């Protein structure tokens, strides 16, 4: 322990001096670029908010400006016509099921790759890298026929299974980076105390890797919350549609109720903004930690 402490102190002494304030990273150009990027990100949200308070006629004449008079009835009408209460309930089921399923599948697979060294480990990791590089659209047609034969079409459970399968490859690789960074001496100490592999995984390793599980849960949950393609393909009953499909309820022939579309968009985006404001530090820290461990 003394040797390890001395080595850490020596490494800290060898670190290069930090860049003083006002260096290359704090120039007017960098602030200007950051300001432009911030405006680029916030302006579409502001336009969405402004248009949600306008009538359809005003959106046609003034699509980018401030509303002349705020029409808050758009939100109530969008909530009612889009059946968004039922949509949020279905979305909650999909999000919770996807997060739990991804945690189970990705957690066990990542633990095996990081701590147990299974045969063909390198081949499995390469296979996962190939899978996450493939477009998900190529799986829709064979999955649809398979789901029809299995009786999973038009069921929320069937959609949860698809979401878990889509999120698992990336989640395995992400969680593995956290598990690899945990010293294996903890495993050996637990085995000396008589713990079996399940106890080591659940009581020693998993509690130490909770930032990775939190990051995986956020990625999988946000993906399930906003997913639309598989939802409209594998669900038929309107009562089973998630909230992301609420926009489809505002189509009348060849026209769109744009004021209600924008109001529904604001309602759907609000939970994401609130979640990001509360979890942004943990989320960014989890992604950063995953990139510094091997």
Automatic annotation (TrEMBL):
Entries under InterPro entries matching the protein: MetI-like (IPR000515), MetI-like_sf (IPR035906)
Translocase is among the record's keywords: no
UniProt membrane topology term: Multi-pass membrane protein
Membrane-traversing stretches: 29-50, 92-114, 126-150, 156-175, 213-236, 256-278
Gene3D superfamilies attached to this UniProt entry: MetI-like
Record keywords: Cell membrane, Membrane, Transmembrane, Transmembrane helix, Transport
The ABC transmembrane type-1 domain, residue ranges: 88-279
Cellular localization per UniProt: Cell membrane
Gene Ontology CC terms, in alphabetical order: plasma membrane
Region (Disordered) location: 1-23
Keyword Transferase: no
Record Pfam families: BPD_transp_1
One GO biological process term: transmembrane transport
Family to which this protein belongs: Belongs to the binding-protein-dependent transport system permease family.
PANTHER family associated with the record: ABC TRANSPORTER PERMEASE PROTEIN MG189-RELATED-RELATED, SN-GLYCEROL-3-PHOSPHATE TRANSPORT SYSTEM PERMEASE PROTEIN UGPE
The protein's name in its UniProt record: ABC transporter permease
Organism of derivation: Phytohabitans flavus
């Amino acid at each position: 322990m003394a040797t390890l402490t001395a080595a850490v102190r020596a490494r800290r002494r060898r670190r290069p001096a930090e860049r003083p304030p006002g260096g290359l990273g704090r120039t007017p150009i960098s602030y200007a670029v950051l300001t432009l990027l911030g405006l680029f990100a916030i302006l579409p949200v502001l336009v969405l908010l402004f248009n949600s308070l306008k009538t359809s006629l005003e959106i046609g004449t003034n699509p980018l400006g401030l509303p002349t008079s705020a029409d808050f009835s758009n939100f109530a009408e969008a909530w009612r016509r889009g059946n968004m209460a039922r949509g949020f309930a279905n979305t909650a089921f999909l999000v919770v099921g996807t997060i739990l399923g991804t945690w189970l599948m990705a957690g066990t697979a990542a633990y095996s790759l990081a701590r147990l060294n299974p045969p063909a480990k390198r081949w499995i990791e390469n296979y996962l890298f190939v899978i996450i590089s493939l477009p998900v659209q190529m799986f829709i047609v064979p999955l649809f026929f398979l789901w029809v034969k299995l009786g999973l079409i038009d069921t929320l459970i069937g959609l949860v299974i698809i979401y878990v399968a889509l999120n698992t490859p990336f989640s395995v690789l992400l969680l593995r980076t956290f598990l690899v960074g945990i010293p294996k001496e903890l495993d050996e100490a637990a085995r000396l105390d008589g713990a079996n592999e399940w106890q080591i995984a659940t009581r020693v390793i998993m509690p130490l890797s909770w930032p990775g599980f939190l990051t995986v849960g956020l990625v999988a949950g946000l993906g399930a919350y906003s997913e639309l393609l598989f939802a409209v393909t594998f669900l038929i009953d309107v009562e089973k549609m998630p909230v992301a499909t609420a926009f489809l309820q505002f189509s009348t022939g060849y026209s769109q109720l744009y004021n209600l579309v924008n109001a529904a968009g604001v309602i759907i985006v609000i939970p994401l903004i609130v979640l990001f404001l509360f979890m942004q530090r943990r989320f960014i820290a989890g992604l950063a930690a995953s990139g510094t461990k091997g």
